[in-house]
Design brief:
Uracil-DNA_glycosylase-like, binds iron/sulfur cluster, iron, hydrolase, Type-5 uracil-DNA glycosylase, 38% helix, alpha/beta, 225 residues, Uracil-DNA Glycosylase, subunit E
């Protein structure tokens, strides 16, 4: 199937009972968004089908992508990420508020190893493994053009490497550990580790705008070469 068909299929997935209950039950429970209709389903990837760069996050947030239906849209992590993507030339605008806001991504596809919002942003290993098939199929569809992947955080790193290994990319054994600034070269694909753009990492100063922009500039230089 095509990427558009994959997006439609993933949006109807109900394979993880705990996450189905949470993604639907949490809708409308935050005062700021009371009365708003939530997406409350799995969130498909966002960005063009011929992307050269993929960004692998963690999972949708309860009142961000689980509300808006678009990856990283409508929460502080996304506000931070889209400012960086716009600065480095990968997004048409620095803000992302809702589907239909005019935002376009250039050569970049945002994907998440777990597609449903989990309680406390913590999917279980079993949920990560259940969702793996969606990530695997999406990366296989992107493979003809894909040249680099930015991984936001250790969870995404641990979810991604087995998928790449199973798809035939030469992932070393034992698998390299996640680190900010780590770069893995797997044949014609380069993987860049970056701390997650969560408010906690940003507010504590662990991660700065410049650090993330530097990772994306390095990843973009691969796709341009
Ligand atoms: Fe399906 Fe993934 Fe959501 Fe589980 S987390 S219900 S596998 S889309």
């Amino acid at each position: 199937r095509t990427l558009a068909e994959l997006d439609a299929a993933v949006s109807g997935c109900r394979a993880c009972p705990r996450l189905v209950e949470w993604r639907e039950g949490v809708a409308g429970t935050k005062a700021a968004f009371r009365g708003e209709e939530y997406w409350a389903r799995p969130v498909p990837g966002f960005g063009p089908a011929d992307a050269t760069l993929a960004v692998v996050g963690l999972a949708p947030s309860a009142h961000g992508a689980n509300r808006t239906g678009r990856m990283f849209t409508g929460d502080p992590s996304g506000d931070f990420l889209f400012r960086v993507l716009h600065e480095v030339g990968l997004a048409s605008q620095p803000t992302s508020t809702a589907i239909g806001d005019g935002l376009e991504l250039y050569g970049t596809r945002l994907v998440s190893p777990v597609r449903c919002a989990p309680p406390e942003n913590k999917p279980t290993p079993a949920e990560r493994d259940t969702c793996r098939a969606w990530l695997a199929e999406e990366l296989t569809l992107l493979r003809p053009t894909l040249r680099s992947i930015v991984v936001l955080g250790a969870f995404g790193w641990q979810a991604l490497l087995p998928v790449l290994a199973a798809a035939g990319w030469p992932v070393p054994s034992p698998r390299p550990a996640f680190g900010h600034g780590t770069v893995l070269k797997l044949g014609d694909l380069r993987i860049f580790g970056c701390y997650h753009v969560s408010p906690r990492n940003v507010q504590t100063g662990l991660l700065t705008h410049t650090m993330v922009a530097d990772v994306f500039r390095a990843a973009t230089s691969v796709t341009a070469s």
